[in-house]
Specification:
This protein has two domains: 237 residues, Aldolase class I (TIM Barrel, Alpha-Beta Barrel), CATH 3.20.20; 92 residues, Chorismate mutase (Chorismate Mutase Domain, subunit A, Up-down Bundle). Strands 1-2-3-4-5-6-7-8 form an eight-stranded parallel beta barrel, surrounded by five helices. The protein is built from 13 helices and eight strands. The mean pLDDT is 96. The protein is elongated and about 80 Å long. Helix 1 runs parallel beside helix 2, helix 5 packs parallel to helix 6 and helix 12 packs antiparallel against helix 13. Bound molecules: prephenic acid (PRE). The site of prephenic acid has 12 residues, from helix 11, helix 12 and helix 13. Keywords: Coiled coil, Transferase. This is chorismate mutase.
Length: 361
């Protein structure tokens, strides 16, 4: 897939900034927000018109009437507008009202039938489309949605990282799992990726930290929910901020460039990267040696008919490594993930050894 720039007029060295209310509630609310954001470097004004809510009874969007308000945003505030579409009717209505950019929500991306319906409705239309990640951390499903839209002839595509649902204690509304975004960048370097910090955070106090983290990871921009009276918003009140708060955050965020031609920087980088390559190689050699030892243990276990998993030993290894890791500036999370992978690989090696036909004595 080859992608054209999402917004033709946007220079590549500047972030794509999307802001606006979670939902269009009233004409006044939409226009007040838009006026406050006009001329302030916002590229797209966002607003939900149809809202897929988790449970019935919540505000499900103002519907088609709100599209007229977005048209006024274009005329009065000079801002391009974007909204979420989830079916054929949404696409037709949005196109009829000259919405500039469409987006697919997480609950649509998760369902290939819905994505295909939107893709079919978009055949022959030249409009930029943003695709949010599916609710669950399914990389292929996200890529599948991009492919479906691309196959409909849309080439101005971007993705929105809005985090993933998670059952358990977390400070986020949707956990970021940055690795998935990193994987997407690796597979599609030209595909713009935008951080929806509002949906990742679900709260105001960490919006800036999350947006900055995304920019540090070379994201192409961010999308933030902005409302003139956030506490009284009809949807997602806890995560919305006022236009003034948004503009303050925008001022403080630092947009990182993907690279530079500064020779001194490049030389230093090359030197340090060389050292990293050497250490990586050393680590691989050490890991390979560790697996050979595990295989030898496997041979003894096979002869004595002993189970591979030795929980108390494994626990001892993990606890010691976490304590030592902390002293060396390595987080408990990292040491645990790393050692679990090593332990699993060790088990795999032992399984191979132990399930080989026994050599005759
Ligand atoms: O000590 C053992 O018995 C091993 O097999 C080695 C090892 C490891 O890789 O460290 C692997 C599996 C066990 O669960 C415990 C530890």
């Amino acid at each position: 897939m080859t992608f054209k720039p999402l917004l033709e007029e946007k220079p590549a060295n500047k972030p794509i900034i999307i802001a606006g209310p979670c939902s269009a509630e009233t004409e006044e609310q939409v226009l007040t927000t838009a006026r406050a954001l006009a001329g302030k470097g916002v590229d797209l004004f966002r607003s939900g018109i149809w809202k897929p809510r988790t449970r019935p009874g919540a505000f499900e969007g103002i519907g088609t009437e709100g599209l007229g308000w977005l048209r006024k945003v274009k005329e009065e505030a000079g801002l391009k507008v974007t909204t979420e579409v989830a079916n054929t009717q949404h696409v037709f209505e949005a196109l009829k009202h000259q919405i500039d950019v469409l987006w697919l929500g997480a609950r649509t991306t998760v369902n290939p039938f819905s994505v295909q319906e939107v893709a079919d409705a978009l055949k022959g239309v030249d409009i930029p489309v943003l695709i949010k990640n599916p609710i669950n951390p399914d990389f292929k499903l996200w890529v599948g949605a991009i492919e479906r839209i691309y196959k409909a002839g849309i080439t101005r595509i971007g993705v929105i990282h809005r985090g993933f649902s998670y059952h358990g204690e977390t400070k986020y509304r949707n956990v970021p799992r940055w690795q998935l975004a990193i994987d997407l960048k690796r597979e599609f370097p030209d595909l713009p990726i935008i951080c929806d910090n509002s949906h990742i955070c679900g709260r105001r106090d960490i919006l800036q930290t999350v947006a900055q983290k995304a920019l540090d990871l070379n994201f192409d921009g961010y999308m933030t929910e902005v409302h003139p009276d956030p506490d009284n918003a009809w949807s997602d009140a806890a995560q919305q901020i006022t236009p003034a708060q948004f503009l303050e955050m925008k001022e403080q965020l630092i947009f990182r460039q993907p690279t530079t031609d500064n020779m001194e920087f490049l030389e230093n980088l090359e030197h340090l990267r060389h050292e990293i390559d050497e250490l990586d190689e050393e680590m691989l050699n050490l890991l390979s040696n560790r697996m050979r030892l595990a295989e030898r243990i496997g041979e003894y276990k096979q002869r004595n008919n002993i189970a591979i998993l030795q929980s108390s030993r494994w626990n001892e290894i993990l606890e010691r490594a976490v304590t030592k890791g902390k002293l060396k500036g390595l987080s408990e999370e990292f040491v645990t993930v790393y050692l679990k992978a090593v332990h699993q690989e060790s088990i795999n090696h032992q399984e191979k050894v132990m399930n080989q036909p026994r050599a005759e004595a």
